[in-house]
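Something for you to look into today, if you have time. Could you write out one complete protein record for me, on any chain you like? The space below this message is yours for that.
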Amino acid sequence: MARFLLTLYITLMAVIFAGVANMVFCKLPIARRFTIPMDGGKTLSDGKRLFGENKTWKGFIGMMILGSLSQIIWGLCLTIVPSLEQYNLFYAAYKNVWQTNSWIGLLLGFAYVLFELPNSFMKRRLDIRPGKTAENRWKWLFVFIDQADSLLGCALVVALLVPITWQQFLGIILVGSGTHIIVNQVLFRFHLRKNPF
């Protein structure tokens, strides 16, 4: 079990770093021209927004760029500790070089934000405010979905690039979701998130 968890964390640690960095980036008063909603403020025939105010081009592009940079930096860190490098699933099939890490990180960042969009779409249909979760008996289901959607995208990228077991696929989603909740709690404490989930 320890080796299983270590493999998941070593493989996706760069995505965790990128997610935190992107949260900080979105709060900074830079690149303001990209702080525009991805849906352009448009509504559908039901009168509700497509994704809402929180899904901006700044966050979307930021996650891809920071995903790439984080993967490069994490790859360099792992060359310093070769005993950990072997646990990264990507390096079983690809060399740990910055060129490879740049496009792997870009793909992971892209999948991370892309797979958040269907959830945002559904929440707008259910009148759940942007940045919030459901306040009814389905609350914990939506808390899980809020954390798992982006991890599903990352798990698919990993599965497309390297051979993994179904246990590893589910592990990325479940362990990643649990980690996501913990990270969100920390970000909430430091006022980088408006809510703890």
Remarks:
- The chain has one domain: 2-28+41-189.
- The CA atoms of residues 49 and 66 lie 27 Å apart.
- The mean pLDDT is 89.
- Helices lie at 2-27, 57-80, 82-85, 98-114, 117-125, 139-161, 166-189.
